[in-house]
Write a structure and sequence with these properties.
Distance between the termini: 32 Å
Bound molecules: S-adenosylmethionine, 6-(5-methyl-2-OXO-imidazolidin-4-yl)-hexanoic acid, iron/sulfur cluster
Strand content: 5-15%
Number of strands: 10
Shape: globular
Largest sheet: 10 strands, parallel
Structural class: alpha/beta
Number of helices: 10
Helix content: 25-40%
């Protein structure tokens, strides 16, 4: 077994020892793990769309979509199919290989599922990989989404088991683990990560990564979100996480889950190009592209294209899948040959 072989027996002490490494050693180790599994010049590009916005009954302290906080967000019902497909076409033509549909639900109602399944099937037929994040799922719902053509399901652990209760009171860590089990059992790929910068300690960041790396299978995608501090949420005035600590978190995620896609997820809008470049060096190899995440901002698409060009990074091509319609326009983010 080499250091780059995925392991499922990580301990918090081992994770903390990685966090404690001198920064150059940590980045070297992360680069070794990254290069054992990926072309470091390629970054996967996903686009997000909020298909149902706001008025969520949950109390997640970071979230602008909770009905409990006054964030000024306008709630919207489930979008019509045609609107979703138009946005997916735009995303594909701008270079995205995966389209992720998010809904501000605690869980989908069974009567909502046919509409979401139609969106999944339509997006898939455009030649995009499909991802959805709809809250907690039953086993049957996970299978119905798989049958519609869903590739990935995003459901985050968000933080360590110990810190979790400070952030969310309306569902438990075990609820999340149960949904993740349904997702895995249905044969869907798992997208699962968390948020940093919520006031948690380094031990909590290590605890989140250990929880992820000791799941029965490493998540295929690991989104690392830096808290977007939204006015009106309980975390609006949270101090910003020290930038090198954020880079360290990415690097430790890369070392602990070497074969997973690590996504530099929410929070890029307030990061310098240099900080993002350090995150790519630390092993991040996926981003959200497009002016908006779900409800908050993301860097301009032109800024991302310029950053990729300056760093010599190209978009990772989507894995071949059928049926796939050809792209109608030149992809703006240059795709790997
Ligand atoms: N309602 C569903 C759920 O919670 O599973 C799906 C949508 S929810 C917005 C998806 C994820 O977005 C959350 O788990 C959280 O990790 C992330 N997120 C939400 N608000 C955020 C914020 N202000 N900053 C960073 N990440 C955030
Ligand atoms: C994830 O881990 N991050 C994305 C995606 N999964 C769904 C969501 C980020 C949301 C940021 C706050 C917002 O735009 O509402
Ligand atoms: Fe609702 Fe998801 Fe936001 Fe929590 S993170 S309040 S479940 S939309």
């Amino acid at each position: 077994m080499t250091e780059a072989t995925p392991r499922h027996d990580w301990t918090r002490e081992q994770a903390l020892a990685l966090f404690d490494l001198p920064f150059p050693d940590l980045l070297f180790r992360a680069q070794q793990a990254h290069r054992a599994h990926f072309d470091p010049g390629q970054v996967q590009v996903s686009t997000l769309l909020s298909i149902k916005t706001g008025a969520c009954p949950e109390d997640c302290a970071y979230c602008p979509q909770s009905a409990r906080y006054r964030t000024g967000l306008k709630a919207e019902r489930l979008l019509p199919l045609e609107d979703v497909l138009a946005r997916a076409r735009q995303a594909r033509d701008a270079g995205a290989s995966r389209f992720c549909m998010g809904a501000a639900w605690r869980n989908p109602r069974d009567k909502d599922l046919p509409q979401v399944a139609a969106m999944v099937a339509g997006v898939k037929a455009l030649g995009l990989e499909t991802c959805a994040t709809l809250g907690m799922l039953t086993g049957e719902q996970a299978k119905a989404l798989r049958d519609a053509g869903l590739d990935y399901y995003n459901h985050n652990l968000d933080t360590s088991p110990e810190f979790y209760g400070e952030i969310i009171g309306t569902r438990t860590y075990d609820d999340r683990l149960e949904t993740l089990a349904h997702v895995r059992d249905a044969g869907l790929k798992t997208c699962c990560g968390g948020i940093v910068g919520m006031g948690e300690s380094r031990a909590d960041r290590a605890g989140l990564l250990v929880a992820l790396a000791t799941l029965p299978a490493h998540p295929d995608s690991v989104p690392i979100n830096r808290l977007v501090r939204v006015a009106g949420t309980p975390l609006a005035d949270q101090a910003e996480l020290e930038p090198f600590e954020f880079v360290r978190t990415i690097a430790v995620a890369r070392i602990m889950m070497p074969a997973s896609m690590v996504r530099l997820s929410a929070g890029r809008e307030t990061m310098s190009d240099e900080l993002q470049a350090l995150c790519f060096l630390a092993g991040a190899n996926s981003i959200f592209h497009g002016d908006k995440l779900l409800t908050t901002g993301n860097p301009d698409t032109a800024a991302d294209e310029a950053l990729f060009a300056r760093l010599g990074i190209v978009a990772m091509p989507a894995p071949a899948q059928a049926p796939a319609s050809g792209r109608t326009c030149h992809a703006d983010i240059t795709e790997a040959a």
